[in-house]
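no rush on this but wanted to send it before i forget. theres a chain ive been looking at and ive put its sequence and its fold in token form underneath. please have a look and point out which stretches look like helix strand or loop to you. thanks a lot i owe you, the record is right below:
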Amino acid sequence: MEAGLLIRKGLVVLIFWMWVPMEVMGENGNAGVSSSRPSVVNVGALFTFNSVIGRAVKPAVKMAIDDVNLDSTVLSGTNLNLIPHDTNCSGFLGTIEALELMEKDVVAVIGPQSSGIAHVISHVVNELHVPLLSFGATDPTLASLQFPFFIRTTQSDHFQMSAIANLVAYYGWREVIAIFVDDDYGRNGISALGDALAKNRAKISYKAAFTPGASRSDINALLVGVNLMESRVYVVHVNPDSGLTIFKVAKYLGMMNSGYVWITTDWLPSVLDLSELADPDTMDHVQGVIAFRHHTPDSDLKKNFTSRWKSLKSKETPSFNSYALYAYDSVWLLARALDVFFTEGGNFSFSVDPRLHDVNGSTLHLTALRIFDEGQKLLTILRGMNFTGLTGQIKFDADKNLIHPAFDILNIGGTGSRTIGYWSNYSGLSVDAPETLYLKPRNTSASNQHLYSVIWPGETTNPPRGWVFPNNGKPLRIAVPYRVSYKEFVSKDKGPLGVKGYCIDVFEAAVNLLPYAVPHTYTLKGDGLRNPSYNDLVDGVSENTYDAAVGDITITTNRTKIVDFTQPFMESGLVVVAPVKETKTSPWAFLRPFTWEMWCVTGGFFLFVGAVVWILEHRENHEFRGPPIQQLRTIFWFSFSTMFFSHRENTVSTLGRLVLILWLFVVLIINSSYTASLTSILTVQQLTSQIEGIESLISSSDPIGYQDGSFAYNYMIGELNIAPSRLKSLKSLEEYASALLLGPKRGGVAAIVDELPYIELFMYTTNCQFRTVGQEFTKSGWGFAFQRDSPLAVDLSTAILQLSENGDLQRIHDKWLSLEGCSAKSSQADATRLSLTSFWGLFLICGIASFFALSIFFCRVCRQYRRYDPECEEQKIEDQELSRRSKRPLRATSFKDLMDFVDKKEAEIKGKLKRKSNDGKRPPSQSSDGQPSSPS
């Protein structure tokens, strides 16, 4: 063998010396530069021949080598010499085979298929500068900067795990269990899955790892433990050669029934795709499974390859899987890159690595491993290639990954599988093939994610819930606050549950609505002498001391950061309760129904309407005439007597009656409102307090009470900046009442800040001696606390909403907290006072009507005044001359005449106007000389 090896090496050296310049054509058909090309180029191949992937890859690689050597447009005059080595599915033997392969001066290596072997060989090719084109090593960490000569010609598991995470989010599952082989391929793939799930607020609840080559009994023990857990969504990431054993065991354990979800990576389609006719026993074990497969678009190249595959005689499998296609494209990628390499003047040369030398007595022959001098240049060309192969476009991005990663999503059922959709990093989940979406705008929104229906294990079409209550025999550990005060909400009990109260009844009612049993036990937290710290209660849930906390637990921002809360089952918020005293009836209580603005406007309108009616009635109604003093008294009397509808003056004019009717209507409304308001003021107890709300409480320096254990303490310090020295802890209702009655000057408190449900109960038990002041200054609610991402929080939220909709939540509230509030006795004094806002519409209508009536009245008066004096023109001329001589204004005389005219009776004016009209109709008398005679 050593002699043969020396002969082969000698031939290789001879070939290198016999290179001749050749005129070559580039990839696009353009003439290239002159370069010396070898007639043979050694290309290595590393994979396990007798494996699911190897049996499909071996004929595909040979087919690709033959196609390249027969194609005159690529590597014209140069043939690729394939040197395959079997890694035997062993990391150690694979490394030995790789070292032996490197002794043969290969310029590139196709493979390996194993991520574990790829990690080791990547160190070798880094040292020797030989590009490694792997069609099967999908470990995401191989793309790191540590392995520059590693080129992945298939899709990274980083994208496959992102696709699985999107599928999990699509169905609303929050936890999955990962079942994987514990090697570089399995660990790093599952690590990528955890990162992808975290982006969608999901997680891996348990990592079930097994050793490579694990026995059936080991897998059985692993699945038995997994089946005791609450998650029912399993992601299986294993090697194709051992993966089916997992489903055989799962079928035996009854884990392929309804309620389970099984998701596999591309290993399962790699197994199933090798057979044209599916094995019935195999298909029976994987019914309802969802599997991911590398997406390769349909093309003429792929159809031609499929047709040629069927005619192959050296194949070991009836069909091929996606890894065969990627291996075929890997050979063509190398061939095209070598063509460019030679076109650009590249030459092959190898040099000795000075760091590799044989130790005395060693038979490793390390000096046979030589560095490929032009390896860096070939690597650069490989990364820059861009062509279309069987698997689609072959082009690498900045992270050394193939562009446009995409996967088919298959649903295994019957005797085969059907495609329920696709995933790509461009569009997410879709029922349309990814290549049809690349020309459209990118849209990965949740509303754009679609898949066809799935037949799940157990032949059900309804998506499984994804979890069940664990069957490990451990009931849910529920912490309950051991309260000293307000025991109506939660308290200790001698019954079977050990606790009782409003919150307990709500939780039990919600649990009874769940479609599954939830065994649970209650644990009281606290010593019974003082209320426990609710923050400690929540911390116990987040630290896994308890599975949940049930009680009057307020949902706050800080608490939601460490636990998950259900839908609030009671609204809550911080309020201020202060001591009050009764207000005695005042001698001036009759003025309180109206505000001072209302009194002023009402009085003004009384006078205004009286003046308007006097103006409209003065010329026609003798009751509105007389000396000025008498007329003024008439206006005042008439105005205010309308308040009691006791005015004795009658209105005779149409306009006056219109105004009076509208005003009497306004007076009726005002009287009724005044009577109702005064009655309320005199009969309802009015309460006052020096504290008007949280603002006045903050600005004061008086002590403030709070409930022991409540979050109000931290809130007032952190959010309201109240000094801790002002805050006083109160443990019971008796301490509440005593502190408020004593007041700040006698060792008590000025007010108490607490949540509204407690305060309502406190005011009821103290017969409404105290009341809330101001408004609620926080809005929150009470909920049940669970550990982060617990599915129970979601299901119980739905149950609480159902309780609210069917009225059970209100009935539970009425059972424990059916109390009459103190709203009637604690109403503000100003609440019954009437302001101008309530009546400005009535005043506006009355004012408009009065203005309209006055306008008509004055228009009629002005028209009568113009017709009243027949000598008005002559008098006007004389007045103007007199005014010019005496330089006195004419306006005073005219206004006085107008006022005198207005003061005349309507009957007198009409009589004179009537006589004037009759005189104007008579013909004028003629004098003897024919001129009209002037009047005597």
